[in-house]
């Protein structure tokens, strides 16, 4: 398991940052895409890092939901909750709140 860091960018620069664990780049990228989509009303793009190595988004094969395990889904949910509770601008995202509310439903 590695710790990845996502930076969310908006018109004014970095509008958020969050660390999370993932077993491999593919899982980390799936989580990053889900987080960026959830915060899409505030962020326009993101960068994903594994320590000092940037995990490139272009050229990655599509990640299908069936390819994602429970650990990645749990990491997404935990990271999204931490983002919402943060003081970063993305913490005020209405889309993020809606995604979390939807995820919490039984």
Description of the structure:
- It is a single chain.
- With 106 residues, the chain is α+β, with helices and mostly antiparallel strands.
- The protein has one domain.
- It is 39% helix and 25% strand.
- It is built from three helices and four strands; from the N terminus they run E-E-H-E-E-H-H.
- The protein has helices at residues 25-38, 70-85, 94-104, and strands at residues 2-10, 13-22, 45-50, 53-54.
- Strands 2-1-3-4 form a four-stranded antiparallel sheet, covered by helices on one side.
- Helix 1 (25-38) packs parallel to helix 2 (70-85) and helix 2 (70-85) packs across helix 3.
- The longest helix has 16 residues, at 70-85.
- The chain is globular, with a radius of gyration of 13 Å.
- The chain starts with a strand and ends with a helix.
- The model has no long low-confidence stretch (mean pLDDT 87).
The major sheet is characterized as: 4 strands, antiparallel
So how many helices? 3
Radius of gyration: 13 Å
What proportion of the residues form beta strands (DSSP E)?
25-35%
Number of domains: 1
Which regions have little confidence, pLDDT < 50, spanning 5+ residues? none
> Mean of residue pLDDT?
87
Q: Give the end-to-end Cα distance, rounded to a whole number of Å.
A: 28 Å
Q: How are the strands of the biggest sheet laid out side by side? A: 2-1-3-4
């Amino acid at each position: 398991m590695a710790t990845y860091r996502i930076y969310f960018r908006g018109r004014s620069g970095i509008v958020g940052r969050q660390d999370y664990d993932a077993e491999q780049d593919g899982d980390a990228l799936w989580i990053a895409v889900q987080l960026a989509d959830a915060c899409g009303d505030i962020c326009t793009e993101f960068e994903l890092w594994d320590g000092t190595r940037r995990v490139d988004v272009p050229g990655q094969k599509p990640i299908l939901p069936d390819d994602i395990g429970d650990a990645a889904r749990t990491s997404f949910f935990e990271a999204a909750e931490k983002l919402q509770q943060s003081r970063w601008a993305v913490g005020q995202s209405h889309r993020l709140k809606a995604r979390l509310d939807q995820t919490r439903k039984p």
